[in-house]
Every structure is written in structure tokens, then in C-alpha cells.
Amino acid sequence: MSALDKGRSGDNERSGDNQPAGVALAGDYWRPEGRPDPLSEKGRIGIGAPLSRVDGAEKVTGGARFAGEFIFDGMVYAALVYSAIANGRILAIDRREAEAMDGVVLVMTHENAPRLNTPPVFLRSPNGAAGDDHPIMQTDRVHWNGQPVALVLAETQEQADAAAESIRVDYAAEPAMIDFELAKAQARQPDNVLGGPAEITVGDADAAFEAAVHRIDATYTTPRHNHNAIEPHALTLAWVNESEGEGETLRIHDASQCVDLAVASLAEVFGIDAAQIHITSPFVGGGFGGKTLWQHQILAAAAAKLADRPVRLALSRKGVYRVVGGRACTEQRMALGADENGRLQALIHSGVAAMTRHNNLPEPFFQATKCLYAADHIRLSIDVADMHMLANTFMRAPGESVSTFALESALDELADQLSMDPLELRARNEPERDPTSGLAFSSRHLLEAARSGAERFGWSERSATPGRRREGEWQIGLGCATATYPYMRMPGAAARITLTPDGATVGIAAHEMGMGTATVQTQVAAARLGLPVEKVAFHYGDSRLTGSVLAGGSQQTAAIGGAVIAAQRALVAELLALVGQDSPLSGLAPDEIECRNEGLGAIGDGSRFESYRQILARAGRSELSVEADAAGSEELANWSMHSFGTIFCEAGVNGVTGEVRIRRLLGSFDCGRILNPKTATSQFRGGMIMGLGLALMEETLFDPRSGRVMNPSLADYHVPVQMDVPEIEVMWTDIPDPHTPMGAHGIGEIGITGVGAAVANAVYNACGKRVRDLPITLDKLL
Amino acid sequence: MRAFDYHQVADSEQAIEQAVRRRQAKYLGGGTNLVDLMRETVERPQTLIDVTRLSRDIDETAEGGLIIGAAATNAALAGDARIRSRYPLLSRAILSGASAQIRNMATVGGNLLQRTRCAYFYDVATRCNKREPGAGCDALEGFHRYHAILGTSSSCIATHPSDMAVALAALDARIHLRGPEGERQLAVTELHREPGERSDLEAELQPEELIVAVELPPLPMAVRSEYRKVRDRASYAFALVSVASMVELDGETIQNVRLALGGVGTRPWRAWRAEAALRGQPATEATFAAAVDAELAAARPLPGNAFKVELARRLMIAALSQRLSDARNGGDA
Amino acid sequence: MQWTINGQVREAEVDFRTSLLDLLREQFQLSGTKKGCNQGACGACTVLVDGERINACLALAVQYQGREITTVEGLAERGTLHPVQAAFIEHDGFQCGYCTPGQLCSAVGMAGEFERGLPSAVTQDLAAADLEWSRDELRERMSGNLCRCGAYNGIADAIAASLGKEVVR
After folding, report:
1. Which residue ranges does UniProt annotate as crossing the membrane (chain B) (predicted)?
2. Architecture of the domain whose range is B223-328
3. What is the pLDDT of residues A154-181, one digit of tens each?
4. Are residues C150 and A316, on separate chains, in Cβ contact within 8 Å?
5. CA distance C38 to chain B (A)
6. Which of A69, A228, A230 lies at the smallest CB-CB distance from C31?
């Protein structure tokens, strides 16, 4: 059975009779009284079709060229030297041996690096793409163990590596806060969490908890994680003179999930105009939050300037761990107070996450708890423990991935205490409105997803008592957990549509890192413009395209969708201005028009139609190009907007060895309209597999004596391999959200959420052991 | 990686001649461990002598065993029909290690001499007695989940990472060596040293000595031998604990037994004490437990690897019980 | 030095330190073969040498002189995708595409190993002459190729389909 059959949407049977003829201009879907985007209606041509990836052929033939695979004439290779202390000063750098080695072109340290401005920091400055605000190779200060302290350029990578290895650095180490246990004692409340308060209260949760009949009060811990995209960060760049007298342009082939923000940040760093920087990133070998701006891009550009040579810098796997931040560790207290019927009276979720004083990303582990359950009294708070470490950053479903482990484990513990089915407990606490903001939900069908998932999974076969099912050495249990991730549409998106007699090109500075963006947005644009997908090209991954769309926060689908909606309106208006009096469309207003059959037609009047080709020909135009900004994301102020799902897991625990094997895994999601079931299935499964990693094996080992990551490799940081992964079923409600473009939600992150708890709950059901400390390794089950 | 000279040789004689002539020479097999360590600058040879053209044949011996050329790949060994039927634990051990790609590259000789995966050994910015005698050991109070509980010293707790070598230890394989002084043989259980104060000295090899072959003695009981490996993911990970086992019964008495452990020893760990406690004893759970306890009494666990004592205990008992049941169902195996 | 790469004899003088992977990527601009870890831990660099899959990152180029090397660029024949390539597209056996060339070469190598009767760690009876395909056999044999996007199900489906095997799930 294919994944498509598993999507129980029924939407793939498009009947010709009911099929709307064309796509009118989307209106004000973001307003309470607004009309939904016409593309969110069921039965739209192309939407919901399992189109194979448009870049598939390039990816399977080796033709897809990634950032570290471009070539400039005269290019040299870079290698970095990383600090071996966590805090202190560089006393001396012995570079003589390196400089004398064959092929070495440059050794750059803080002593000779060009003057650079400190980069603007992500989520602290509007232009910020950088991980932290440390000066980059400007002083003798060392701020974390692994900080780049020297860079070598040489004619070959082998020469550069050998020269970097020969460099000896003397340090004066200073006391460093590198033990999370100690740092916790000095934890502080951050200024903000994702721009909102670091503490949220509804009623008096502590008093309500004390008074509750049923109580769970437990601490859950989650370790550091690294993204570990299989493509290590790499770039190839040159300072080039694109045309006479224009000055130099910094031309970068980067692996980036934020080309536009990176340009803005680099412009500040180098004190040049953003127009002088051009980043392209057509293929990105996985991002997961890690492929933003870190020191290596800045150092490569600085060294290229200093040496006056194009540079290729490809971080080693170890280098990625040294210079690209990961997910912070957390310690979360979950206190649930419930009445005899399982209704939550108190919900307390507090704790601390590691951070630095130089970034602004407290791991937002209360996000899911804000919206999931109705509780009379709620207290949520996040503290941060400042450490001398590489700045942490966001990794797939920041907050939710680790917070759902705590919240959804605690609910399972409460269900156990109440002798109640865990799904029933959740259903009893399903809120009418967002319990902390008070807003109505734009679209919430969690219970439906849970019900259909439970039925398909065979949840009713679960024994409420742990340890009842055994096969040989294996104890088998079932667990479930709620998944959730916010809907997001960030400001800044814009799109350009260029129409020619042969079709349309849609361009936007967005990203394809494997999510299926290029494929899905081709489908969406084709549907919106009434064109076959073969006649639409979607251009992305280029900072010179319009708009600024971060591939993050699961927001790209909606952000691009919103921009194309705006561009479609502009295009129709321009076309109507071109048609002239002889056209059957003459006199029609944009809102009376729909795009259909490769042209424009009057809504409800099949006789009034003119093809794009005819309109352009009549006007003597070979092409028409329009650009428009997406409407502001007012919907986010009007509703509480989230995706939901329920994860079901069947785990085997080996009674002899404690090994855990995931036998079955099912995700039933409520994420609005699913645009392409083939790529969506992969997104959900991919998130869920990363969730299995989080549940069972992933942990970045940060040595509390040195502040050094001690498993900076794919051999020692375990991610799931093929053998760890069962056949994963995914299904979805496919109910459109009336207040989003295409009725869709982004789906890149929700898959990882809930999986940690679903596994932990299944393990408990299998063997009666409750593990509250990730990952669930076998030693915790012996 | 620092620059080096490279010489490919056609036979062991040439290999040794080159090794004697060059300074800081290393023999290079499949490179799966040495090249990696050279990138980390843990290994810094000036010369590599490529010995992959040495014999990779697997031949019958006059005694009814097999002799394996040291350049045979791990994959070739694991896939050999004679090994699979007569020494299945060896096939299983090899197939449980690394990935198919690595097994296609790695040689038998190289596998035996692969070095520990200790994170502190790999990271030249940390202290490691194995890399630098006398420097200290950062693993003792650091991350040592993968480290040894048997055969350790106050200077080193690194495990030998090979699965194959554990199976070879259980089989009493013999190592054929060739050096400037000529040829000699060594029991595989005598090849690897315990660290003591000199954890940098890992194998009982003379300078320039080269492993040219591994000999498997005839061992009928090995037909029902197994290798079970426990690790942190389902495949492609080093052992936390592994057990190689075979048992021969005489009625209900254990006539002969072989047990070896991986993941817990500073060298491939032949469980001599347990074997001695089992031989000639009735095949009962109580005997197994006593034998296993005898072996693990010497364990020196640390906070991060204390679970291995219990895990090793359970795995050994489970292996013995399984072998017992296999032996009782003798003819069917 | 000389190698036969995708059927063509190629020559270059390289540093002894140069890996087969860097030879392909940097000397011959065959960048289809990917560098994911450069230490034999991810399989992104998998190529076929005389039909057998290896990790090109741990292979010194100098050691492989004279050998027949097949990379992802050599899988398609005269513009027609290899069945496993087509199956990867159809079954969505990838997302970002970075591990894909290694997965593809590995799958081709694996099929050969299976045809030759080589067992795997999950083969129940190692002494048996005939192997039986199963989903577990496929998964174990492909476990040397990491995919962080998590396309494992699609990869397994694609390989099974391209081999024409009814693989039990």
C-alpha cells in the first residue's frame, strides 16, 4: 500500500463535475469576515496531487550542484583552527610552520584579519541572521571551546588542512561557566521568549495544584542536539567585479535557509551595500534550522578579501559542531493537577534551558503548553542558564520537540494515575479557545485526527497495565502523544510573476532544502494561474529574487502562498490594463476575473475568456512581469493558529538487554490542506524519524570540564539508520484552515513533536519503566 | 593530514623491506581506521606501505582448519561459505560491525589492529595516555559509556572496538606474523595487550612486524556458535556489549565452552574465568550465573559504564542458555 | 596516476593524501559523489569499485589506481535513468538529495552482494546457500547510508521496487 492510500483524505478523487472552473483572486482570508483562498477548496486541479519532485532528476543523477561544488578561477581552499579553551585570551599563535608549507596562501588570525563589524543577531535585529554577537576574529578573546582562532587558505584542501593542523595556539584560560548543573543555579529570566513574555500565568496555578486530587509533579530533561544535515556547511565565494565602475560584488554560493537575511547581515559586517552581495543557494543538503549565518561564511569572505582570491570553505563534520550551534539542553518541571474526572485544574510548565549572553534564543519549551489543554490555572515560565558555549540555535520544532516530551509524558503519567485511557484524558481537556491567549482557534481538529489515528493504529488493543504483552525476550507496549506546532507567516514575503506566451515563472527568495518547496509551489502557482505544471517554473534560493522568506518556523508554504496571491492580483490587474476594448474581458474588474485554461475569464461566464498568449500578443508584449508584497499576517492576531496531530507508537523493549526497537509508528495530522501527499508524507515521516532519534539516541556530549563537544562526528552522535526505522504510516484530516493561503499549514516541523513522549509512553506501557531523561538508552531500562 | 610517502608492495617480504628502510612507516590496509586517524592527526606516519596486495586467499589447512590471508576483506571473510558453515560466529561478528561499504574495504589484518574509538583518543586537544604516554586520561572522569570495565588501568579504559577479533578470540585463532627476524605465530588472545601503564603499546608486535595471515583451527563445536551484539542503535554502531559463545555438552555436563566479550574489555576479552567455571559442570542456570560472576568479579566499572556489568552478565547468561538449547536440539542446528 | 571512472580512463597527478572522494569531486569535477562526514560514518560518498560499494572518503586515491570506479554520474546509460534512479523519484526516496548519490550506488552494490549470496547481520541461517529477501534484509544492508531528512521508507520502497522484489514489510 502506498503512502497515498494512507492519507485518508479522499480528496484525490477529483470529480470533473464538481471541479471549479477557475481560480478567482483570493481576498482577505486573514480577516474574521474574510473569504477563504479559493485554492483551499477541495477539488482544485493540481492541489493535492502526488507530483514527483521537480528537481528529482537532478538529484538522482548527481547533477544537482551544492554550494561547495561551484568553482571560481583561481579558487583556494580554506581550513579553520578551533580554540581548545572555553573562555580566555589568545596569548600567541605560532603560524610560522604553516606559512612555510607548500601551497599556503594565507594564514588569517585576529592579528591580520580585516576589520569587520559585529554581525546582527537572529531574532534580535531585523537584519539578523547571525548566531551570536561576538566579534569575528577581531580580538584575542575566546568565548567558547571550538571558536575559530585562525583560518588558512591554500591551493588544495589537503595543504590547507595540514597547515591548519600545524598552527599552535597558546591561551590564557579564564574561569568558564561550562557545567549546566552549576549554571542552572544562576539561571535568569530572559527579556523575552520569541518576542513574548518569559512567564505566562492564568489564575493561580500553584494554589490549584496544591489543592488538586490527582497530581503529577516530575522533572524531564532533554540533552543538547545537533542538526546534522548530511551536507556539512559549505560555501564558495569570490569578490568579483560584475561591471566597470560598479565596485566589487561579494558573490556567494552558500548552503542557506535565509539568503536574504544573510545578505543583510553580511552587508552590515562588511559595511557595504546589500546590493553588493549576491547569494544563491539552489540546493541545500538539509538545514533543520542550522543553515543560517555563522562565522565560517564571514571568515571565508574576509579571507577572500585579504588574499584577493576566491575561496571554497567546506566545514568538516567536526567543524560544524564547533561553529554551528545546536539545540540547547533543557530541564523542565511539569506539574499537573486534575480532578477525579481528569479535568486539568493546574498546569505548571517551568524550567531552564542553556543559553549564552550573546544570543537571543531561549529554547521556547512552553510553546506547546500554551495552546494544547484547557486548564483553569496555568503557569508557564522559561529561565536561561548562561554558559560559555557556542550559541545555541533553533533546531527542527524548537521548543515543541522537547516540550512535548515533558508535557505528553506527564499526561500519560496522569492518565495512568487516573486509570484512564490517555486519549480520553486528552479529549476531556480539549479547549474551546486558546487557554492562554483566549483567541479562537482558526482550525483545530485534533480530536478527529486522534480518533482516526487510533482506529487505524489499533489503539484499542492497548493494555492499560504495563508489561502485559511479550514475544520471546521482547516486551511490547503502545504509547501515544499529541503533536503540535504553530502556524506562522512572517512578514517580508513578496513574489514576482513573469508571464510569457509559453507560461509563467514565479520568483521569490525562498528555499528548497528538501521540504518539497520547489515542487509544491510549482503546483500551487500552476493552479492559481490556471496553467499546467509543465508551464510553470518556480525560482528560489537567490537573494536577488524578490522578498525575504526564511525557511524556518514551518512558514514558507504559507509565506510564499501569500506572496503569490498578492502577485496574482497584480498580474490580473496589469493584464486587464493591457486587454483593450476589443477583448471579451474588456470592462471587467479584477475581482470579476478568474484564472483558467491558461488565461483569464469572467467568473460565471464561460464565453468571456482570453488566453494569456492572446492578451500578450494583442498588446505586442513578449512578457509581463509583476511583483507584489504579501499582505500582512493579520490572521495571527485574529486567531490562535496551530497544527495538531497524534503520534502512535508500538515499541519493543528487550527484557534482557534493555534495547528499544520501534515496531510501528503512525502520525495522524491536522495541518490544514495537504498540497502534495507525496512530499508531505516524506516531510511528516522525516520529522518523525528525527523524533525517533530524539527519543532513543541523540545527544551532543558537552564535556562539563572543558566546554568541548566530545562526539562531533556521525559515528559518535547517533542519528537513526535505516534499520532503526519501521514503516511509518501517516494520515491527515485535510481540513483546510479558512484563514491561510491555500488553507494550508507548514508541515516541516510538526512531525518531530510528540514522538519523544509517544516512544517514552510506549516504553512504559511495554515494561513499566518511566524514563524522564532523554535519550531513552538501554542502560535506563536495565 | 601531514604529507607522507606511499609505497605499494606485492608481498610481505617487500613490505618488511620497505618498513625497515623508511622512518615512521605504517602498514596500510583498507584505510578505514588509519586514514581516519591520520585526518585527526592522531596518526602521523611519514610513510604508508600499502599491503592490500598481499594474500587475500582463504585456504584449508592440513589440520582441517582455515588460513586467511591478512589482506582478505572483512566482507570476503564474512561471506565465505566455509566460514559461514563452520565458524558462523565469525561471519556474524563481522557482519555486525560497521557498514557494508566499510566491510568491503577493511582487511582482516587491519581490523585486528584497529585502534580504540575513545573520544579523548580521537581529540588531540584533550589528554590521552594512549596518544601521549604520561599525559593523563580525560576519559576516566569524562564520557566513558563506550569504555572498558575489564582489563583497565588507572591510565587507560579504552575498549578495543573490533567485533571480528572477539570472534577470533573465542575460536583460538592464531596470528601469523612476519618481521625482519622471520616468521612466528601468536595466539590471537595474546596479540592485544592490557594497557597497564603503557596504553600506547597495544599489540605484542615487534617493530616492522606484519600480520600476514590468521589461522582458524578446526573446531567442530563452532558449527553452533553465535555472536550477539548490543549497541545504541539497530545497526552501524560499536558494541556496548557483545558476546561470542559456543557450548559442547556431554549429556547435561558442559564438556567444552568458549566465551568472549566485546565492548567491555581493553582488548578482545576471552572470558577464561567463566569458561573454567563452566567446564565439567552441569549445564544449569546456577552454573551459568556463578561462572559469569566469576568473570565479572574483576570488573572495575565507572559511573558512565557501570550498566555494562549487568548487561554483560545478562548477555552471557542469555547466550549460554541459548547455546544450551541449541546443543540439546543438536541435529537440527 | 590513472583510474577508469564511469568507463573513461582518467589521469591526474595528485597528492598521496587525496582521497578517492576528493579526486572525484575536486580533480574531475564529478561532484555527484558527496562528502557528508569524511570519516566513513554516513555513506554519502559511496561509489562502486569493480562493482563493490565502498566509502570513497576513506579510500586514498593512490590505492585505487587502475580500478574501475562507478559514481552516480555513471549509473544512467545514454540518458536513460537506471531503474533505481527512476524508482527513487517515483517513491520519493530523498528530500534534500545530498545522501542520494550514495544511497543509489549503495543500492546497486547491495543488489550485487545479494545476487552473490552474501549474508547480512540479520540473515537467520548464515550457512544457507539461498538468501531470501525481506524488508529487514534490505534495511540492514542499507544501514550504512544515513539520511537525515528521514526518507528511509521511500528509499526502501524505491529499492524494493527497482529490484522487482516483493519485500515483506
Report:
1. none
2. 2-Layer Sandwich (3.30)
3. 999 999 999 999 999 999 999 999 999 9
4. no
5. 8
6. A69
